[in-house]
Amino acid sequence: MVKLSSVLRRPLITEKTTIIREMDGRTLVFEVARNANKIDIKKAVEKLFGSKVESVRTALTHGKEKR
After folding, report:
1. Backbone Cα Rg of the chain
2. What pLDDT shows up at residue 1?
3. pTM (2 d.p.)
4. Rounded CA gap, 61 and 34, in Å?
């Protein structure tokens, strides 16, 4: 299990996440620790913001290859 304080790395503020946030107003997007699972992420967000989390969706993104 991961410490809750080290699960959330930083909020992701991009054009896409800003549009999602404006549309429904309830979606938050974070970069999280690589070894954190959905349960860890849910607990960290609920502890930090003090609100109920409906669901957690995760995606792995790989960096661009440099040559």
Report:
1. 13
2. 61
3. 0.82
4. 11
